[in-house]
Design a protein that fits this description.
Elements: E1 3-9, E2 14-20, E3 25-31, H1 36-39, H2 41-58, E4 66-73, H3 79-92, E5 97-101, H4 103-109, E6 116-121, E7 125-130, E8 136-140, H5 152-170, H6 175-183, H7 189-198, H8 208-216, H9 220-244, E9 251-256, H10 264-277, E10 281-284, H11 290-308
Parallel strand pairs: 1-4, 4-5, 6-9, 9-10
Antiparallel strand pairs: 1-2, 2-3, 6-7, 7-8
Length: 316
């Protein structure tokens, strides 16, 4: 039997699905982050290797039994990065056809045909859309230094800034500051600053849950941070709709990422903002999980190669 792997990797986690060549899901698991832009190519490969081993062990299979891999990875938007990751996975799965797409491509693949948009809000943020003419445009997802506005990283950074300012002003921690330090192991501010300087990705996204909980409990500072995030996400979505000229007809807007469904306050803010800037969009969750979409694409690529007679594993 030919096995295929579907992977959805970001800055926080990697979802992995093992399926048969006919698209029947056999096993699934989750591992650490596999965004090479954030964690490096070695760590990204390690997370994928760990996840793949779990699902292959469940099927009593090995890497040599995998005939097709589709990995939708954040941080692989540039061709050179995608090719480097593809080469690493090709060495890991020596008999497999390997395709690298972005995590955004996976979300859009699960949208209905025609006009569509996907908004991703997790460790990073981005939007990708497609119009009825087949044009696909992506905005954002270029890393926290130049994009990712409204993301969990952005929210965590703004939360630390607000909490630190309050401590500098009064000499005492606000409720936000107290919760931040508690979340990070009750460390003092100097220690937290050192952690941020050495590994910001391990601090800022983690603090989204702190801000979300406080906002739902009425904390005005936390609510202000989430309102700003919703405004920024709405801006990039509106910019994409303008570029794709999606204003004439209703279209689906798929929302995905770790920030959705975690805070009633944030969900309400982003819903209202999108309603204002994109009144023609109807919001919905993806019908197919991104890792499952990757597995379906892996099956599609395998069959296309089989039809062309171009895949070595299928010629044995």
């Amino acid at each position: 039997m030919y096995w295929v792997l579907g992977l959805d990797g970001g800055g926080t986690k990697t979802d992995c699905v093992l399926a048969s060549e006919h698209g029947v899901m056999r096993a699934r698991t989750q591992a650490g982050p596999s965004n090479p832009f954030r964690v490096g190519f070695g760590a990204a490969l390690g997370a994928i290797r760990e996840a793949a081993k779990v699902v292959l062990d469940e099927a009593k299979a090995t890497a040599a039994d995998v005939s097709s891999v589709c990995a939708g990875l954040a941080g692989c938007g540039q061709p050179a990065d995608a090719e480097k990751m593809r080469a690493l996975l090709a060495a890991e799965f020596p008999k497999a056809l390997v395709r690298i797409v972005t995590d955004l491509d996976l979300v859009l693949a699960g949208a209905p045909r025609g006009d569509a948009m996907a908004l991703v809000a997790g460790t990073g943020s981005a939007v990708i859309g497609r119009n009825s003419g087949g044009q696909v445009i992506r905005i954002g997802g270029h890393g926290p230094m130049i994009s990712d506005e409204g993301s969990a990283y952005d929210i965590g950074r703004r939360a630390v800034m607000a909490a630190q300012r309050e401590y500098d002003r009064t000499g005492q921690d606000s409720e936000l500051g107290t919760r931040i330090l508690r979340e990070m192991g009750s460390v003092p501010w100097p220690e937290l600053r050192k952690r941020i300087q050495s590994a910001p990705d391990e601090v800022f996204p983690r603090l989204f849950s702190v801000v979300a909980a406080l906002a739902d409990n009425g904390d005005q500072t936390a609510q202000g941070i989430l309102r700003t995030a919703a405004l920024k996400l709405g801006e990039i979505a509106a910019t994409l709709a303008e570029r794709l000229r999606l204003g004439e007809h209703p279209f689906p807007l798929l929302k995905t990422g770790g920030m959705f469904g975690k805070s009633k306050y944030f969900d309400a803010q982003i819903h209202e903002r999108l309603r204002v800037v994109l009144p023609q969009a109807h919001e919905q969750l993806p019908e197919v999980a991104p890792a499952d979409a990757a597995a379906h694409l892996a099956v599609k690529f395998l069959h296309q190669s089989k039809g062309a007679g171009g895949h070595p594993a299928l010629q044995q």
